[in-house]
Amino acid sequence: MSRLVLIDGSSYLYRAFHALPPLSNAAGEPTGALFGVVNMLRATLKEKPEYVAFVVDAPGKTFRDEMYAEYKANRPPMPDDLRAQVQPMCDIVQALGIDILRVEGVEADDVIGTLALAAARDGLEVTISTGDKDFAQLVRPGVVLVNTMTGSRTDSDAAVMDKFGVRADQIVDYLALMGDTVDNVPGVEKCGPKTAAKWLAEYNDLDGVIAAAPTMKGKIGENLRAALPRLPLNRALVTIRTDVALEQGPRDLQLREQDADSLRALYARYGFTQALRELGGVAAPAAADDAKVSLRGTAAGYAKAGDTAPAAGTDPALAAKGEYETVLTAGQLQAWVERLQGAEEFAFDTETDALDAMRANLVGISLAVEPGKGAYIPVGHDYPGAPAQLPMQQVLDALRPLLEDAGRKKLGQHGKYDIHVLRRHGIQVRGYADDTMLESFVLNSTATRHDMDSLAQRYLGYTTTKFEEVAGKGAKQIPFSQVGIDEASAYAAEDADITLRLHRVLSAQLAAEPSLEKVYREIEMPLVPVLARIEANGVAIDAAELKRQSSDLSARMLAAQQKATELAGHTFNLDSPKQLQAVLFDELGLPALVKTPKGQPSTNEEALEAIAEQHELPRVILEYRGLAKLRSTYTDKLPEMVNPDTGRVHTSYHQSGAATGRLSSSDPNLQNIPIRTEDGRRIRQAFVAPPGRKLMACDYSQIELRIMAHLSEDPGLIRAFEQGADVHRATAAEVFGRALEEVTPNERRAAKAINFGLMYGMSAFGLAKNLGIDRGQAQDYVALYFSRYPAVRDFMERMRVQAREQGYVETLFGRRLYLNDIHARNQGLRAGAERAAINAPMQGTAADIIKRAMVSVDGWLADHADRARMILQVHDELVFEADSAFIQTLQAEVEARMSAAANLRVPLVVDTGIGENWDEAH
DNA sequence: GTGGGCCCGTAC
DNA sequence: GACGTACGGGCCCACG
């Protein structure tokens, strides 16, 4: 379907002017607002709409001024620095091939409204691009709202409801009630978004609210009655007209070819280097992006924008169905080997009979060297009537020289899995050069999914064949080895083909962002084989000991359960928060002091602690909970996870697991093994070194706090680290004005809570809760802290501002975290995004550093593989298993490499422990 | 039966 | 509403 984008030029210009710093070009001409608008336009055009209009206000009075003399009366004249940017803006819009509309007697809003509805009637998809919430009144099927500067999108009644708490058809009444100070339209005094939404929910529309006014209670009722006479006028003023007589219809607004020469001159004049670079030296600039990814090599073939691309901004050829070959004969295999030999880089993928890479058996291999073509080589399909396949060994032997050659570049999607499978079938993959999952992750870690199906949809507009479609799901699922070869081939060859196509698109996007490409190339890709080795190494556990612990825990749980039954007067399920809530708060009448996010009375630890003085039961529940958690999550589970082939536990590390760049771990998660309580530490004791070996745990001391010192450059905090071992004590001494040795335990505890809390963007409220002090005192602590470490406060504010202006924050190494909610209307979401903006540079930089250290250490370990192995990573800690006689050498080398993984303004200290088990090694 | 939301709790 | 990033277990309800 063709698309029309209506751009609210005036609104963007004003918003960019106020949101961005007062930039200027070399000649001193102001460019800040222009820069924002140009970025917005470039983003809009990347979506390749067929029709576009840039609508601005015409000078002079409009019909609204006739209706209401005071309309916009208190609006200051346009600042000179902004006025100076209007003409350049129009020049750039023209050069981009976009029509500019300016209609006298009405506002830009009315022109947009009229065109939007006309276009929707005409069967076009309409996108209104604006920063103005008033347009929400136009949202309906076929008409969506986007704010390209913030990335927000309002595309349905549900989305309007979500943002404003009213339906799209109630927006006019909603605005009429609230009024608009900027336009000098007074609404009902003290009636903001909340009240307006509440009334409309109750009385449906403005007429309903007006009818209910006489009986409305309180001050707000008086205010409403006072405002009654002007509400109909308000409604008229905020209603966007959709019946303006226009010279052009929607279909007259076709996007024209852009004038590259003019654009280049304009971009150069105003210093827009990124935009200029995108134009490049290519004759047809609009296709510059495409040229890099084009299958047809059409560098000069400027495809008209709005071509029938199935997804926004993609090359149609990249979304077409491919042609796939099933390799069943030696001749076919040989032909493919030759094809791979001639390729600069090829994509490969394995099919197996299980998800667990450490157990799965190879069923087939797929390959691709050019987009749209692919092969599947089945080697393990086994079902009645299955065709004869090439012997697995013959296939592996034929491919081995290619897969093991470090000089021959390979590409995959989540290739770590395939590396495991192939290793377990006798092939050591080398030269694994690119991974589309990691490309996607580095480009935008906030996108939660980086699986191939999602990427294909997102970047190619291509709908892949799903695993479930060929193998079924749930109880009806069959192993891939029993899937018919023809079906399997269509599915599997597509995987390799799509991986290749995705790489064309993603690598081009990375190339446009050098700092991200560096993160991808220098941190993430080198880490892949390292993680594969750590996972393959696995860790030895004492399963018998864990089973003993399970029995012990069970006995204690039973005792707690009996006690609980006695105290409650009847049996109930202690594992059920719902039943527990009924017992505590309904039957026993204890106060429900804490609520869950959904408003239910909470039974979490904090809530139970709060009522533990009043009744015995809460303590018993807490005891039970602690035991149950340890048993179900750890002592019962871990023995089940021992791999029968290796006798060890092999976790999976997810490289695209956490948006900040941290790894995550699952199946089992070995990054949350207990450490704080005695019972918990017993579990760590079951992570053991085999006879003759020892475990060594090396962790970065206070790495995130050190990074905060580095990034903020705060002299006081830097000094605290230089002073020595205990930074919390040093902080307490500084904040409370004591000598180091005079710091009391309470002062140290407070300093520690502040240090940690700050890194998470915690408020005085949170600190008060944490320390059990009142809010005023917590506020005093924070103020005192910031007075001693002012650069820390500046750093945090800088991160908030950067997040708001750029939409993302960065780590020391250039990794980016986009904050999608940084401009959310919902205050809670927005505040959360601000906290994440503060935390991400520290957490993410720590992640970058330990990843670099892992690659470095792994490089050294390659020559000592029989004496020492890396076996675990827990965010700031690396765990090794080594021959007892080798431990000292290992310790010196690992500590040196970990410390050298970054060069900060404070020392990067590593603490090491050694023992027979993981607990002892701490 | 299964999938998913919710609540809770473990780690850094 | 109020502290960032994860994973996972049990409950419980909707759904097929």
From TrEMBL:
It catalyses: DNA(n) + a 2'-deoxyribonucleoside 5'-triphosphate = DNA(n+1) + diphosphate. Keywords: DNA damage, DNA repair, DNA replication, DNA-binding, DNA-directed DNA polymerase, Exonuclease, Hydrolase, Nuclease, Nucleotidyltransferase, Transferase. This is DNA polymerase I. Residues 2-256 form the 5'-3' exonuclease domain. PANTHER family: DNA POLYMERASE I, DNA POLYMERASE NU. The gene is polA. InterPro entries: 3'-5'_exonuclease_dom (IPR002562), 5-3_exonucl_a-hlix_arch_N (IPR020046), 5-3_exonuclease (IPR002421), 5-3_exonuclease_C_sf (IPR036279), DNA-dir_DNA_pol_A_CS (IPR019760), DNA-dir_DNA_pol_A_palm_dom (IPR001098), DNA/RNA_pol_sf (IPR043502), DNA_polI_H3TH (IPR020045). Its EC number is 2.7.7.7. The lineage of its organism: Bacteria, Pseudomonadati, Pseudomonadota, Gammaproteobacteria, Lysobacterales. Single-chain monomer with multiple functions. Residues 324-511 form the 3'-5' exonuclease domain. One of its GO terms (molecular function) is DNA-directed DNA polymerase activity. It comes from Stenotrophomonas capsici. Pfam families: 5_3_exonuc, 5_3_exonuc_N, DNA_pol_A, DNA_pol_A_exo1. It is an enzyme of class 2 (transferase). In addition to polymerase activity, this DNA polymerase exhibits 3'-5' and 5'-3' exonuclease activity. Belongs to the DNA polymerase type-A family. Residues 680-886 form the DNA-directed DNA polymerase family A palm domain.
